[in-house]
Amino acid sequence: MPKYGLNVEVVKTAGWAVIRDKTINKEYDAAHMLAPMPIAISLGLGANAIPFTVPAIENINGQGITLAMKHKDRRNPADWKGMKFAIPFDYSMHNYLLRYYLAEHGLDPDTDVQAAFGAAAGNGRQSARRQYRRLPCARQYLPARDL
Q1: For residues 100 and 18, what is the distance between their CA atoms, to the nearest angstrom?
Q2: DSSP 81
Q3: CB-CB contact of 120 with 88 (8 Å)
Q4: Which of 40, 74, 90, 113 is most exposed, with the fewest beta carbons within 10 Å of its own?
Q5: CB 38, CB 54: distance < 8 Å
Q6: What's the pLDDT tens digit per position in 24-71?
């Protein structure tokens, strides 16, 4: 007997890009995604544009930046030049918020730090940066010189 009337199978998936791909290929009937992922899918960022329906948004932007213990005394973002940050997905809110936060503290998110995206860390950075600039919200998160 399913609990609450739901009869579902919950499947652990390796990463956000895999969730995107399996959803696009109709291997999943529904999926939990980072909020910007359906928008990126609908716009064709990273693949062909596919109409996508989002029945619910659950994000309340509770993200945080976690530093490795070796950086515990580098709490000022201005001191983060040269650091490498892991970001779960190219178009995730984590990416946009980190870029904005770094820029607000005088760092260029494209040149002063490294960003590693999901399982394919480093493979799509140039493409993601180009596609990111096409988004209407890019003006909010990039210094004017980068637009």
Answers
A1: 27
A2: T
A3: no
A4: 74
A5: yes
A6: 898 998 888 877 788 888 888 877 888 888 877 776 666 778 888 888
Confidence at 5, pLDDT banded by 50, 70, 90: confident
The one-letter amino acid at 91: Y
Taking the C-alpha atoms of residue 147 and residue 136, their distance in angstroms, rounded to an integer, is: 11
CB-hemisphere CA count at 13 Å for 100? 11
Q: What does the alpha-carbon distance between residue 30 and residue 108 come to, in Å, rounded to a whole number?
A: 37
139/46 Cα distance (integer angstroms):
20
- Within a 13 Å sphere around the CA of 7, how many CA atoms are in the beta-carbon half? 1
Instruction: Report the phi/psi class of residue 49: left, alpha or beta, with left for phi > 0 and alpha for psi in -120 to 50.
Output: beta
> Going along the chain, which residue ranges are E strands?
84-87, 114-117
Structure tokens at 131: 């596609």
CB atoms within 10 A of CB 52: 16
Q: Can you give the length of the chain in residues? A: 147
pTM listed for this prediction: 0.54
Residue type, 97: L
Q: Which two tokens stand for residue 74?
A: 């580098």
